[in-house]
């Protein structure tokens, strides 16, 4: 991996509230949520080394020692960040935008929209997730929390939607879809195409091609040429 591959863009103001306020679009955050949100922001901005209880107190605008009251150990703080991250990622799409999966076109549109919003408005969430994923490879107890949270928040709903769409092997197809989405978002967030962003139509075309292979239908092949920077 090159130096450019390892670099990550700075978090946007919406993703990493420095004052401990709730992220844009949410109501007033509880103190526990402020702690977890501040931890996510620090992970995206400073990396794992920059995440300390004192730094979280400062970023959340809380009295010194507050973070320790909610997450006494570093492991507890990381687990709180993982759980909160799943909640915030789950709000990237509104309930009205979530498909039931019965129409492959609706599923492709929702997946592409969620990916595009992550890449444009919520990059800090992606960067924080990559930091946590790497740390989980070194901490078995964190890996269990990371995997369980991802399964409940993303894998099971996607598997249900693929089942409704007619997938003959929804469990395997859900793994393939998640792997494809993760790979694309990593490439444009911290990989070889960091600094560019595919538009929503391009992402949808890719999802449609993947679904066509899974479900046996033709891909539409929408190919908007423009990429925003």
From TrEMBL:
<dbReference type="Pfam" id="PF17940">
    <property type="entry name" value="TetR_C_31"/>
</dbReference>
<dbReference type="InterPro" id="IPR001647">
    <property type="entry name" value="HTH_TetR"/>
</dbReference>
<protein>
    <submittedName>
        <fullName>TetR/AcrR family transcriptional regulator</fullName>
    </submittedName>
</protein>
<dbReference type="InterPro" id="IPR041583">
    <property type="entry name" value="TetR_C_31"/>
</dbReference>
<dbReference type="InterPro" id="IPR009057">
    <property type="entry name" value="Homeodomain-like_sf"/>
</dbReference>
<feature type="compositionally biased region" description="Low complexity">
    <location>
        <begin position="13"/>
        <end position="25"/>
    </location>
</feature>
<feature type="region of interest" description="Disordered">
    <location>
        <begin position="1"/>
        <end position="33"/>
    </location>
</feature>
<feature type="domain" description="HTH tetR-type">
    <location>
        <begin position="29"/>
        <end position="89"/>
    </location>
</feature>
<keyword id="KW-0238">DNA-binding</keyword>
<feature type="DNA-binding region" description="H-T-H motif">
    <location>
        <begin position="52"/>
        <end position="71"/>
    </location>
</feature>
């Amino acid at each position: 991996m090159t130096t450019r591959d390892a670099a990550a863009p700075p978090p946007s103001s919406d993703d990493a509230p420095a004052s401990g306020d709730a992220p844009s679009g949410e109501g007033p955050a509880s103190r526990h949520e402020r702690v977890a949100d501040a931890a996510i922001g620090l992970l995206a901005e400073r990396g794992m080394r920059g995440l300390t209880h004192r730094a979280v107190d400062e970023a959340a605008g809380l009295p010194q020692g507050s973070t320790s009251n909610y997450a006494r150990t570093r492991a507890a703080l990381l687990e709180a960040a993982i759980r909160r991250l799943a909640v915030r990622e789950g709000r990237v799409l509104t309930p009205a935008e979530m498909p039931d999966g019965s129409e492959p076109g609706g599923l492709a549109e929702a997946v592409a929209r969620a990916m595009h919003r992550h890449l444009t408005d919520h990059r800090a969430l992606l960067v924080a997730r990559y930091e946590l994923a790497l740390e989980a490879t070194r901490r078995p107890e964190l890996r269990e929390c990371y995997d369980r949270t991802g399964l409940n928040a993303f894998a099971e709903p996607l598997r249900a939607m693929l089942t409704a769409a007619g997938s003959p092997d929804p469990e395997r197809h859900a793994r393939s879809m998640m792997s494809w989405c993760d790979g694309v978002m990593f490439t444009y967030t911290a990989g070889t195409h960091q600094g560019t962003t595919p538009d929503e139509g391009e992402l949808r075309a890719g999802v449609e091609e993947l679904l066509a292979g899974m479900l046996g239908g033709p891909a539409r092949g929408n190919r908007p040429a423009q990429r925003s920077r």
